[in-house]
Amino acid sequence: xxxxxxxxxxxxxxxxxxxxxxxxxxxxxxxxxxxxxxxxxxxxxxxxxxxxxxxxxxxxxxxxxxxxxxxxxxxxxxxxxxxxxxxxxxxxxxxxxxxxxxxxxxxxxxxxxxxxxxxxxxxxxxxxxxxxxxxxxxxxxxxxxxxxxx
Length: 150
Known about the structure:
8% of the residues lie in helices and 51% in strands. It has one helix and ten strands; from the N terminus they run E-E-E-H-E-E-E-E-E-E-E. The protein has a five-stranded antiparallel β-sheet, with no helix packed on it. The chain has a five-stranded antiparallel β-sheet with strand order 3-9-8-4-5.
């Protein structure tokens, strides 16, 4: 019998207005960086750096390269919460959720990342936000980053 495992990332971005109405919702598949692959293998082995702790957003554009470590133009990194949920089998998905509040990271958001530090570097996975999200001063943004072992 042959078995394999893969890691799939699905990112849901919900732009909400000041009345908590959803203005826009998009779902994007992520790309895992070299750092992310090393982190996951290291966590299984027991010597890896800390788990994902922040979601970053930015206004830059760049072609994905597994060697990327940062967003092209980062605006903000927000602390996240992690939970295990069930997608296909019990506890096969790590759900990372962050809410970027009104007044923070406003502008045309075109990229996001999952990271394990609050500033720059240590980018685990990356998405280009397409179509871009126009986040106004009064808008919040809820980002749900699901890492599914498949």
